[in-house]
Design goal:
It is a single chain. With 72 residues, the protein is an all-alpha fold. Helices cover 51% and strands 0% of the residues. The chain is built from two helices and no strands. α1 packs antiparallel against α2. The longest helix is centred in the N-terminal third of the chain and has 23 residues. The chain starts with 5 loop residues before the first helix and ends in a 10-residue tail after the last helix.
């Protein structure tokens, strides 16, 4: 297994920041701290549209499918 590059580390850090902000919004809205919060089924994920797009873009860069080995 290889070490992540500096750019990958920056992208991963930004992903963590976005998820932390969404978690804080969930808690500020009265969410139970015992639960992870957010639910795509009820459309209560506490992410903005811009954050969702950024997460998808960063995720593709940090976790590219062509590099991942998938067991069949």
């Amino acid at each position: 297994m290889r070490e992540p590059t500096e750019l990958e580390n920056k992208h991963y850090k930004r992903l963590r920041e976005i998820f932390a902000a969404a978690r804080q919004r969930y808690l500020d809205a009265g969410g139970d701290p015992k639960y992870p919060g957010g639910n795509l089924l009820t459309k209560q994920d506490y992410l903005t549209a811009e954050e969702k797009i950024e997460i998808l873009q960063l995720g593709k860069q940090v976790f590219p499918l062509q590099r991942m080995k998938v067991k069949a």
